[in-house]
Amino acid sequence: MDNIRIYPDPILKKKAQPIENIDGKVKEITGRMAEVMYGNKGIGLAAPQIGILSRILIVDIGEGCKGLINPEIVGGEGESVMEEGCLSLPTIEVAVKRLEKVFVRGWNLEGKEVNLELSGFPGRVYQHEMDHLNGILIIHHISRLKRELLLKRMLKDLKRSQKKGLT
Question: Nearest CA to 56 among 45, 47, 44, 43?
Answer without folding.
Answer: 47
